[in-house]
């Protein structure tokens, strides 16, 4: 996420009329102030400037943003699914439906039916 934020700062600088060199320089300064990438920008400022200015690739940046978004979405979806499963299992235990609990633990289709029935 730190890298994505840094790239966002560069793009915003360009949108505000800065050339790529000035946008990168301002973004590195801001990254140092914010401690992005655990101080990497502070320790390797010259290398970062050189690398970014010679290798900046908008398509690659968009790919990184896409991958970051996918990771975030997958993590959220997994957490939500785990919580719904836990809620279902708790409801089945409270209702004393232990046979259904055993079936739900092993069957995706049956578990989905029970989720619709009990969790809406």
**What gap, in angstroms, lies between the N and C termini?**
35 Å
* Helix run count: 7
Biggest β-sheet: count, sense, barrel?
none
Given the helix and strand composition, which structural class is it?
Answer: mainly alpha
Runs in which pLDDT lies below 50 for 5 or more consecutive residues are none
The amount of helix comes to over 70%
Q: What is the rounded Rg? A: 24 Å
- Note the beta-strand portion: under 5%
In short:
This protein is an all-alpha fold and 120 residues long.
Task: Tag the structure with descriptive keywords.
mainly alpha, 120 residues, single chain
Mind sketching the topology for me?
Layout lengths: L1 H14 L4 H15 L5 H4 L1 H11 L2 H37 L3 H9 L1 H12 L1
Description:
The protein is mostly helical and 120 residues long. It has two domains: 1-56, no CATH class; 57-120, no CATH class. It is built from seven helices and no strands. It has helices at residues 2-15, 20-34, 40-43, 45-55, 58-94, 98-106, 108-119. The longest helix has 37 residues, at 58-94. It is rod-shaped. The relative contact order is 0.08. The model has no long low-confidence stretch (mean pLDDT 85).
């Amino acid at each position: 996420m730190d890298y994505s934020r840094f790239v966002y700062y560069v793009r915003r600088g360009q949108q505000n009329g800065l050339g790529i060199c000035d946008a990168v320089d301002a973004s590195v300064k801001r990254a140092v102030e914010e401690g992005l990438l655990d101080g990497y920008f502070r320790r390797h400022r010259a290398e970062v400037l050189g690398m970014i200015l010679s290798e900046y690739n908008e398509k690659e940046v968009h790919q990184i943003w896409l991958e970051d978004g996918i990771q975030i979405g997958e993590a959220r979806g997994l957490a939500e699914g785990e919580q719904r499963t836990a809620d279902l299992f708790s409801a089945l235990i409270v209702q004393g439906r232990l046979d259904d609990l055993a079936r739900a633990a092993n069957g995706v289709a049956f578990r989905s039916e029970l989720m619709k029935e009990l969790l809406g």
